[in-house]
Amino acid sequence: MRAIETNSLTKRYDTTTAVDAVDLSISQGTVYGFLGPNGAGKTTTMRMLTGLTVPTSGSASVAGASITDRDRLRPHIGYLPEEPPLYEQVTAYEQLEYVAGLRDLPHNETQSRIDDLLTRLDLSPSDASTRIADYSKGMRQKVAYVQAILHDPDVVFLDEPTSGLDPRAARTIRELIRELTDSGTTVFLSTHILPVVEEVADTIGILYGGELVAEDSPEQLTKRAETGEARTLEEVFLEITSTDPAEQHSPEAVDG
Amino acid sequence: MGAGLLFPSLAFAGFVYIFADAIRDAGSFALPPFARGTVAVIWLFGVFVATQRVASARPRIDAEPLILTTVSARTVVGGLFVAETLRVLAYLGLPTLVLTVGSAYLFGSIASILVIPMAAILLAVTAVVVGMVLGYAVALLVATSPFVARHKTVLGGVAAIAAMAVYLLVTLPQVGGIDQAALAWVPIGWLADLAVIGTSVQGSLIRATSIVFGSVAIVVLGGVLVEREATRLWFTDPVSGHEETTLESTGSGTEETTDWLADSIRPLVLPSKIPRPMRRVAQWSVLKTRRDPRRLNFLLLPVVMLGSVFISSGIQSGSLWSLLGPACAAVLPWVAGATFAMNPFGDEGAVLPVTLLSLPGSTYVRGLMIPGIVFGLTLVTLTTGITMFAGSYGPVTVYGIVGVGLLSTLVAVATAPAVGMWFPRFSAISIGQSREVIPPRLFTTGIHFISTTVPAGFLALLVINPELARAVVAGVVGYLPAILLQLIASGDGGLLISGAMWFGDLGTRVQGIDIDLFRRTAGGLLLLGGILVAVLSYQLAVRRFERYSPPM
């Protein structure tokens, strides 16, 4: 069973096609780096895969559950949206206990897991007892990350998980992502920080104008198909998503 | 507030038109102290609103870093002052126009065209500038004093209640023994002397002149003060008003753990028998309300409006307690339903996607209903029971009205999530209030208020006075349409008159129904209708949650 499988997944808003017939097939226990310029349709794709947005056409399943069946999908997924989904007037402990309670996680084990994860992300019990309104951007991001993985989901969707984090915290997140995949969790990672993707992703997909224009392993993607000359992921990304037709590489050539 | 100004303005216009000759014939008379006092009351109300808006809703400015590094604080203060003044003038516009045209029509006074708008503008600018001075002073206190910052909600609530009490004392002389005339000494009331120049009402020219210069002085001095306060506020790092939660355990072991959410809502307690996901939704809802009680401001308007009407008519008729019990049974259920679940999606805010992905709709909706049921039923039973006994009703009537309250609470609690979820509000900016607080839509509040209080009020009437209830139904479904149709037909006959006669007959037939039969039938229909609406609302809310796609 594939962790994520989509078949011509499409989303249209009136006359605009946000996501155009995207086909994905992502193996269990891997990291899928999802790249694309602003407005390419990455967030819309993630929202469809998490069941938050209904596709216009096409189908998809996540951990074997259809994305249109929220009841079946819910236990299998975790989602960290770009804006940390936190309520400002509560503490991190209250926020995390709330989300754990919604999923009916065992109370004692959850508290211990919360403490472990927060400690790994350098958030002290004192920090966690302070209202989120007083947090820095990075602290919010850490709490939101813990919230997304608290229930040990089969597939976790991370939208810019290292945004606003200092280098140490960003490194910890990358390590945690690797630990997740080691334990069999599939990570669908969307970020603009290309070195992060290059480091942790097993496969990279590039979305441009709603279409999946390239998909391969980081090594293959950065190796020019014709000459075998190595380039950085940034160069590949800029070439594929260039608005200048002369600069633009044909997706077929890049797609390994 | 708009409606509150529209209807008196229209009523005044009608009054002037109908009694124009009588007023002209009355000749010249001295400006009564009551008029000056009324102007003073309006001004004080304006100051209160402006203070409240500045202190609690908008002490800081949009895009603050950009604005404060682009223009001077004086420019910002000036802009805010102009915006607030225009806002007040938008409300004062219609009454001012009606007064001006009415005065010019009644007294043929050209001067009124100048002095009445001038008085209105001076009233607005002075109220705004004084309100801003007080508002920024309060905001500065909140920003610099940890004690005030920590207890700002309680202190604000006490101040609002005190202001409301003063307002009631002045507007309901039966309660406080003082009326508007007692405030005639407040100099701002001299604007009335300015407004009557050129009419047959004799004011004081000295007072009129004094208040013009006085107002200018208030605006200039107030402007300087506001600029200083605002500058200090905007360039001060505010103290934190949040207390750290006490940790009773480290949570590192499994033998001793803390239930943070349960601790945070104490002394309120929800039964531990409630399944955990549902209990968490309920605790979350209570906690959010507790941490940010300003989100309940929307409850105040209908409660204060109805409350003042009930208290006023109760005092005038000498039967305050007789009215209070049934009023509690009709209105408190709405409060119980609306307090925790009137805008569930908007209240979730950024957390909404996580909530949608974490639990089934049925669990969420039940969780939302729990605080209303647990705390609402208790509140309604106690308050209604006590006020009914105080109203000297017999035990059967007391039980009947308490039963009405309980049924209405269940209906209100079940319908609130459905109404709130179908018409969520996510933005606070559009209503011009605080940027942090997202109240429900006025539409949802109105729909829920009417659909719960009207049937509850009618049920209460059925219990207390079934004859009056029958007369109300006969009037609404029969006599009133008959009268309207007759007015429209203007005696021309034909279909409209036939319709009017049919409605008239219907009213008579309703009035002829045996009172016991009417009571049983109407009561039974409302009971069944209430249960049906509650069940359907619950299902609707669950379906809405399951299919909801939050905005990006």
UniProtKB/TrEMBL annotation, chain A:
- What CDD domains does its record include? ABC_DR_subfamily_A
**Could you tell me the keywords of this UniProt record?**
ATP-binding, Nucleotide-binding, Transport
Q: Does the keyword Nucleotide-binding apply?
A: yes
The record's Pfam families line, in alphabetical order, gives: ABC_tran
Q: Which GO terms describe its molecular function?
A: ATP binding; ATP hydrolysis activity
Leader sequence range is none
The cross-references to Gene3D superfamilies, in alphabetical order and at most eight, read: P-loop containing nucleotide triphosphate hydrolases
Q: Which domain of life is it from?
A: Archaea
Q: From the Swiss-Prot or TrEMBL record, give the protein name.
A: ABC transporter domain-containing protein
Q: What is the lineage of its organism?
A: Archaea, Methanobacteriati, Methanobacteriota, Stenosarchaea group, Halobacteria
Automatic annotation (TrEMBL), chain B:
- Enumerate the UniProt keywords alphabetically: Membrane, Transmembrane, Transmembrane helix
Which segment of the chain is annotated as a signal peptide? none
Membrane spanning stretches: 30-51, 88-107, 119-142, 154-170, 205-226, 296-315, 363-390, 396-422, 442-464, 476-503, 524-542
User: Does the record's keyword annotation contain Membrane?
Assistant: yes
At the top level of its lineage, which domain of life is listed? Archaea
The answer on whether this UniProt entry bears the keyword Membrane reads: yes
Record's protein name: Uncharacterized protein
Q: Could you tell me which species this protein originates from?
A: Haloferax profundi
